[in-house]
């Protein structure tokens, strides 16, 4: 009896709180028909925002995955002075407000920042330009790969790697052929979380971007712009596109499990 | 010289190579992307002299914004505890029909970009929204008030509570409940004495994570919050406002206080958790 | 407190055979009963049904003649020790033990001091007087076992139910806690039902042994009776190593299929027909050979000494039959004309027929 009440309450809560938002995004996006919403994506500013977001995401994922793997290896395999401090430093961006994560880059490279004026004279633009957006996104997504890969790598143990070294493999070979295959699932998960966060980052990017339509507007910033300009269909169409991309990234983390189950069934 | 530096850093001898390379790479990466900006954050407020910093602290609007952020985050995280417990129970123990779907939906607030959540919640709870309209007929206004902030923070914080409690609940042996019943405990005693206490450390963790996320949250809140100074203006928004006024010192002061208090709260939550989980430590 | 189980039936949807198939059992006050059987036989199911933890479709469970309905009705009357002890991890040992008293309604709850005294008394009884303030995670397996027992006894139950209580302990602790448990049972005048898959354990502690198979009780008898007169070939095998020889009965004699087995006489009332002789290795003997009849057909090969017995293996046809001889019987001939299995039990269609 109690069980049925709790089932009902759980599903009611899930429906009201968690299901209505995505359903509403779609219904708002398609209010004037699918043609109208697709047309809003053809707008040059919208196109520019989509391309900029994809570009920033690609750079961020590449950099943070490469260095994240190296850091995970370092923290999993070696005990050294300052290890705990380094670990805390790598996790810090998780407990910082996105706005602060953007602000720090302005303090360094903004017009009133430490290095901003000097770089400006050399004609290098970071704040209110694409490099600033990349830096802010790198900052907020920095912990994900390390955090997902590190525990699994520690669990793996070092036996296989030591055996590979004794067999004459070089560092990169061991990393590529021994260490990474063992943490494949966690690495995929970390990369996808990085992707989802990089696609959707709003607060940090908003602070450093300068909001120049067609130039420094990512998809989330463009959504804000459209929404504040009462272009509801365009805003929610872009929101639906961005939401689907980010959700796909998050849900894809379960893909290896599905694939394994599917293969089990077919064999 | 360089060699001795690495030798000094390294504590245990393992046969694995790659220490220098990975340490170097990690230090460059984390140093440039985290430590370096952090230094700017810590140093910048004092750059214009202590007087400027003290002046920046004499700002009642800042304190109002900080209070709004912290109190809303605390209320939202606290409200998430009972709902989170219920959902965690349904997923881990209650054999909820359609569990796989519910399980995926729980992560939705984490996956949804904050700007998307922001405009969606603002529309949903707006005066003409699907949920806002029925609520306003009941005399409850959510959007453009403090309540809106709490609703948005509850939305983004929910997964933290569920995901913190769920594994602990799943690993709690079933026979604890049976043992308690056989010893004469009535249903409510089973819940309050046997099921909830072992979950408390996880609940505290979930609360702490949801709270920390809520304090710094920006994108999902600003659209629904109304953003009136002294009333419904959150601290992260005030940072943005100060930046638009080119008041870097003011912006940095808010940011620094926000960061310090957040870290203190996380430390407090950590120590509370340890105290509550004293029993779980093996000899 | 006596326990009466009457025609208990428990089925699960989807499964063909019932988990408990019309099980009836009477345990008089003060008796120590062991439920044994292979895994999946229904021992734990029966124990949990007696405790009221699982619902059953038909039948009744009565304590001292009163039919029990729900698990609440049994609370405090039945002490249950779970396989993994189910100690509350967040409570100290003392609070764990006191739990059954702490949850009583305020009107019937004994005062604090009395509860504390009861806890101290139980800790003493369990020989762990200093562990009151420790948490379960810091205890060894044997200590957890004692705490679980103390908690089950705190409310003064008349019946103690133990579900594989020694499963998680190492062999040495197992043995000592087993005799201690029997001693405790006698001192407190409990009625105890113990589930185990270890027949030796059961034979050692219990007054009566109930052998279960496929949700049914196969035999319910004293250890001695069980050893002498196993009801089925399964019981015979379950209680210890046994060797079986198929053959047939004819005219009051049992003839095994193997030539190397000496035919032996059986009671005349046994009808002619196929039968299986089953025997324990230490009951097998060698028939001495006449001195002048060539090489011996049966030859025992030594396989070492264990537990006071010399072990041998005898090649009979295609298989190797184990054969034990008490150690003090020295200088035994290791060759013979045939194997003597006249102490075997006879089974026909799986049931004892002797």
TrEMBL record, chain A:
GO terms, molecular function: ABC-type sulfate transporter activity
Record's function text: Part of the ABC transporter complex CysAWTP (TC 3.A.1.6.1) involved in sulfate/thiosulfate import. Probably responsible for the translocation of the substrate across the membrane.
Domain of life: Bacteria
Membrane-topology descriptor: Multi-pass membrane protein
Complexes and interactors: The complex is composed of two ATP-binding proteins (CysA), two transmembrane proteins (CysT and CysW) and a solute-binding protein (CysP).
Gene3D superfamilies: MetI-like
Protein name (database record): Sulfate ABC transporter permease
Pfam families in the cross-refs: BPD_transp_1 (PF00528)
Compartments in which it is found: Cell membrane
Species, as recorded: Acetobacter garciniae
Transmembrane segments: 51-76, 88-112, 124-146, 174-193, 233-255
Principal location: membrane
CDD domains: TM_PBP2
Signal peptide: none
Domain ABC transmembrane type-1: 50-253
Keywords in alphabetical order: Membrane, Sulfate transport, Transmembrane, Transmembrane helix, Transport
InterPro entries attached to this UniProt entry: MetI-like, MetI-like_sf, Sulph_transpt2
GO cellular component terms given for this protein: plasma membrane
From TrEMBL, chain B:
SUPFAM superfamilies associated with the record: MetI-like
GO terms of molecular function: ABC-type sulfate transporter activity
Principal place of residence: membrane
Keywords from the UniProt entry: Membrane, Sulfate transport, Transmembrane, Transmembrane helix, Transport
Membrane spanning stretches: 21-43, 63-92, 104-124, 144-162, 194-212, 248-269
Topology relative to the membrane: Multi-pass membrane protein
Domain ABC transmembrane type-1: start-end pairs: 66-269
InterPro entries to which the protein is assigned, alphabetical: CysT_permease, MetI-like, MetI-like_sf, Sulph_transpt2
GO annotation, cellular component aspect: plasma membrane
UniProt key word Secreted: no
Cellular compartment(s): Cell membrane
Classification via PROSITE patterns: ABC_TM1 (PS50928)
Function comment: Part of the ABC transporter complex (TC 3.A.1.6.1) involved in sulfate/thiosulfate import. Part of the ABC transporter complex CysAWTP (TC 3.A.1.6.1) involved in sulfate/thiosulfate import. Probably responsible for the translocation of the substrate across the membrane.
Assembly with partners or alone: The complex is composed of two ATP-binding proteins (CysA), two transmembrane proteins (CysT and CysW) and a solute-binding protein (CysP).
Family of the protein in this entry: Belongs to the binding-protein-dependent transport system permease family. CysTW subfamily.
Protein name as catalogued: Sulfate transport system permease protein CysT
Organism phylogeny: Bacteria, Pseudomonadati, Pseudomonadota, Alphaproteobacteria, Acetobacterales
From TrEMBL, chain C:
Alphabetical UniProt keywords: ATP-binding, Nucleotide-binding, Transport
Keyword ATP-binding: yes
A GO molecular-function annotation: ATP binding
Claim: Amino-acid biosynthesis is one of the keywords in the record: no
Pfam family, one: ABC_tran
SMART domains per record: AAA (SM00382)
Domain ABC transporter: 3-239
GO terms of biological process kind: quaternary ammonium group transport
InterPro entries from the UniProt entry: AAA+_ATPase, ABC_SmlMolc_Importer, ABC_transporter-like_ATP-bd, ABC_transporter-like_CS, P-loop_NTPase
PANTHER family: SPERMIDINE/PUTRESCINE IMPORT ATP-BINDING PROTEIN POTA (PTHR42781), SPERMIDINE_PUTRESCINE IMPORT ATP-BINDING PROTEIN POTA (PTHR42781:SF4)
Official protein name in the record: ATP-binding cassette domain-containing protein
């Amino acid at each position: 009896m109690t069980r049925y009440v709790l089932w009902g309450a759980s599903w009611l809560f899930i429906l009201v709180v968690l299901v209505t938002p995505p359903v509403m995004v779609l219904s708002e996006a398609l209010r004037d028909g699918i043609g109208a919403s697709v047309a809003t994506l053809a707008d040059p500013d919208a196109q520019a925002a989509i391309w900029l977001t994809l570009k920033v995401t690609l750079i961020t994922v590449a950099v943070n995955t490469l260095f994240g793997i190296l850091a995970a290896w370092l923290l999993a395999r070696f005990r050294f002075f300052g290890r705990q401090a380094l670990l805390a430093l790598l996790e810090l961006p998780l407990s910082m407000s996105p706005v602060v994560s953007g602000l720090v880059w302005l303090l360094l490279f903004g017009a009133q920042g430490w290095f901003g004026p000097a770089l400006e004279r050399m004609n290098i633009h970071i704040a209110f330009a694409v490099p600033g957006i990349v830096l802010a996104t790198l900052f907020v997504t920095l912990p994900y790969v390390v955090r997902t890969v590190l525990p699994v790598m520690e669990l793996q143990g070092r036996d296989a790697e030591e055996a590979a070294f004794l067999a004459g493999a070089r560092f990169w070979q061991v990393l590529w052929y021994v260490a990474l295959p063992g943490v494949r699932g966690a690495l995929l998960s970390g990369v996808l979380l990085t992707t989802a966060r990089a696609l959707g980052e709003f607060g940090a990017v908003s602070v450093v971007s300068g909001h120049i339509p067609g130039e420094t507007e990512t998809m989330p910033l463009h959504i804000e712009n459209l929404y504040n300009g009462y272009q509801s269909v365009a805003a929610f169409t872009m929101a639906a596109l961005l939401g689907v991309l980010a959700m796909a990234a998050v849900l894809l983390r379960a893909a290896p499990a599905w694939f394994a189950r599917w293969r089990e069934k077919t064999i | 010289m360089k060699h001795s530096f690495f030798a000094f850093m390294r504590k245990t001898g393992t046969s694995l190579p790659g220490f220098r390379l990975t340490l170097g790479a990690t230090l460059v990466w984390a140093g440039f992307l985290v430590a370096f900006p952090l230094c700017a954050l810590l140093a910048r407020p004092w750059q214009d002299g202590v007087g400027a910093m003290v002046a920046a602290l004499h700002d009642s609007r800042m304190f109002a914004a900080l209070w709004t952020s912290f109190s809303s985050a605390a209320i939202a995280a606290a409200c998430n505890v009972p709902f989170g417990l219920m959902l965690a129970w349904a997923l881990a123990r209650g054999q909820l029909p359609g569990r796989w779907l519910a399980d995926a939906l729980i992560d939705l607030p984490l996956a949804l970009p904050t700007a998307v959540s922001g405009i969606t919640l603002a529309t949903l709870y707006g005066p003409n929204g699907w949920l806002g309209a029925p609520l306003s007929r009941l005399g409850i206004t959510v959007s453009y008030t403090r309540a809106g902030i709490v609703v948005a923070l509850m939305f983004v914080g929910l997964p933290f509570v569920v995901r913190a409690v769920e594994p602990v609940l799943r690993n709690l042996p079933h026979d604890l409940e049976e043992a308690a019943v056989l010893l004469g405990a009535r249903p409510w005693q089973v819940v309050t004495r046997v099921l909830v206490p072992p979950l408390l450390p996880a609940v505290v963790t979930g609360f702490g994570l949801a709270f920390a996320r809520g304090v710094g949250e920006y994108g999902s809140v600003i659209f629904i919050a109304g953003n009136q100074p002294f009333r419904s203006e959150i601290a992260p928004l005030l940072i943005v406002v100060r930046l638009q006024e080119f008041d870097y010192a003011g912006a940095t002061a808010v940011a620094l206080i926000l960061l310090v208090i957040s870290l203190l709260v996380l430390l407090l939550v950590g120590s509370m958790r340890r105290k509550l989980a004293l029993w779980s430590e093996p000899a | 407190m006596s326990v009466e189980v009457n025609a208990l039936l428990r089925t699960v949807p989807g499964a063909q055979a019932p988990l408990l198939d019309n099980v009836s059992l009477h345990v008089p006050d003060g008796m120590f009963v062991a439920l044994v059987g292979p895994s999946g036989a229904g021992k734990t199911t029966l124990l949990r049904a007696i405790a009221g933890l699982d619902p059953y479709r038909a039948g009744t469970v009565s304590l001292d003649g009163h039919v029990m309905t729900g698990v609440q009705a049994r609370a405090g009357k039945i002490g249950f020790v779970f396989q993994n002890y189910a100690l509350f991890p967040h409570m100290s040992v003392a609070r764990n033990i006191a739990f059954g008293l702490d949850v009583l309604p305020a009107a019937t709850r004994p005062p604090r001091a009395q509860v504390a005294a009861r806890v101290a008394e139980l800790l003493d009884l369990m020989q762990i007087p200093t562990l009151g303030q420790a948490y379960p995670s810091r205890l060894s397996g044997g200590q957890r076992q004692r705490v679980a027992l103390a908690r089950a006894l705190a409310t003064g139950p008349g019946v103690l139910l133990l579900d594989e209580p020694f499963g998680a302990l190492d062999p040495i602790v197992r043995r000592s806690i087993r005799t201690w448990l029997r001693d405790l049972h006698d001192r407190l005048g409990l009625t105890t039902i113990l589930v185990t898959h270890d027949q030796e354990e059961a034979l050692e502690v219990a007054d009566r042994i109930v052998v279960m198979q496929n949700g049914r009780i196969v035999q319910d008898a004293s250890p001695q009776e069980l050893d002498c007169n196993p009801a089925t070939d399964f019981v015979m095998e379950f209680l210890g190593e046994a060797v079986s020889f198929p053959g047939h009965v004819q005219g009051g004699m049992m003839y095994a299929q193997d030539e190397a087995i000496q035919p032996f006489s059986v009671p005349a009332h046994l009808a002619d027909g196929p039968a299986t002789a089953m025997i324990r290795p230490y009951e097998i003997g060698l028939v001495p050979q006449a001195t002048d009849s060539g090489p011996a057909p049966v030859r025992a090969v030594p396989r070492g000494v264990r537990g006071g017995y010399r072990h041998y293996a005898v090649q009979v046809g295609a298989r190797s039959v184990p054969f034990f001889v008490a150690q003090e019987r020295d200088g035994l001939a290791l060759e013979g004309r045939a194997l003597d299995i006249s102490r075997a039990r006879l089974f026909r269609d799986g049931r004892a027929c002797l």
